[in-house]
UniProtKB/TrEMBL annotation:
SUPFAM superfamilies: alpha/beta-Hydrolases (SSF53474). PANTHER family: HYDROLASE ALPHA/BETA FOLD FAMILY, PEROXISOMAL MEMBRANE PROTEIN LPX1. This is Alpha/beta hydrolase. The lineage of its organism: Bacteria, Bacillati, Actinomycetota, Actinomycetes, Kitasatosporales. It comes from Streptomyces ficellus. InterPro entries: AB_hydrolase_1, AB_hydrolase_fold, Carboxylesterase_BioH.
Amino acid sequence: MTVVDTGRVRLHVQRLSPADGGPARATVVLVHGLLTDSLASYYFTVAPAFAAAGLDVVMYDHRGHGRSARPASGYGLDAFTDDLDALLTALDVPGPVHLVGNSYGGTVAFAYALRRPDAVASLVVVESEPATAAWAAKLARLLERVHHEMSRDESAALDWIAAHQGDHTARLAKSAGRLVRDTTIARDIPASPVLDDAQIRAIRCPVLALYGAESDLAEQAPRLRALLPRCTTEVVPGLRHSVLVEAPGRVRDAVLDWVGRHVPPGTRRAEQPAPTVSGCLTGPEVGSR
């Protein structure tokens, strides 16, 4: 495990080198979702397969999540995008990189592709969408509901979750409740700057978008194809929002095929002052956040 100090927040990072010990074919950066998610959702599903296929794999916990620091404020989308940029600079990651974003992680990936188009070879987003006004309104409702339920009677809410979804999910929910209750995340994310259609059309890198057929986000598939000149979409039958966890083999194969078809000539990111990096001794976050 590595901890990267960006100067604003300390981020927990895991990196897997190509399993054969040779040079990496490309670098994939795995960006996880919001609240109950962490880098563990990649570490225990697709990340090892990516390394086995000869890729350099970078994954990290968002601020406030997993084993990263949890500041009291500073949770707008721009802050998450800043974190990704600072992390890649600190690790001196060769670019351009392939970003894989699950749920909110995909929203961060879209924002980063707009900010640093030179640094992104392609995007793969799973059950995700760019930050629009509709997205901000939906996140506001979600975060307010979590705040209300976990503040009103946390014990009862966690007992119900444990009974219906298991103790592991209840532990994740407890951590998510603390994050929403004890920080400004519920105000910051909905207040983030949003994109209009013209700004979304400015994303020029290849984009692969995966959705569960039963998810309310599946309607994003035709919209993204209409807006983005180089977008491919896949809809997975029978699944809702948990495509990464429920169909990791499908995600693995899609990402490996996509990266294989979009490996650009090797370049490196522009030099920037590097934040401080320090090592730690413990292993990856397993979900007891």
